[in-house]
Amino acid sequence: MSVDVYAADEQSDVVVAVERWSALARAVLAAEGVVGDTEVSLLFVDEPTIAELNQRFLGRPGPTDVLAFPIEDEAEPGGRFPDRGGPGPGAVRPEEDRLLLLGDVVICPAVAVRNAADHQVTVDDELALLVVHGILHLLGMDHEEDGEAERMEQREQQLLARHHRDLP
Question: Averaged over 45-72, what is the pLDDT?
Fold first, then answer.
């Protein structure tokens, strides 16, 4: 059983320490109690790519810093068609052991560079925040309402204080 973070740097604007951010994502997932066979994708993309995703999925124009795409659909039930009455031939794993595809976090380092300057933090600190923020979104946290936003920000700061500085 493992928690796997598949990370890819698909941009060339900013040098990204992919393994470092994968390690932070794994640490956050562990701290949030994610166990078992779980997969998360962490993608670093350029501004045109994140702008297109932002428009397509959120209806918002222009680039943003981070997008999270949780996989919310239930897995197709196993069993025989049409009655779904049992696992059928070839079933080898019980339901609780199946792979959980948590979702994708997409980050734009070029936007993070601008945000870091605006927030008066290092680019490293800004990227760490975006990784944590995206993972928390995959786990169901949101910031649409004031109370939710406060809880999410507080948890982000706790996780960053505990895991960000310890990374190689």
Answer: 95
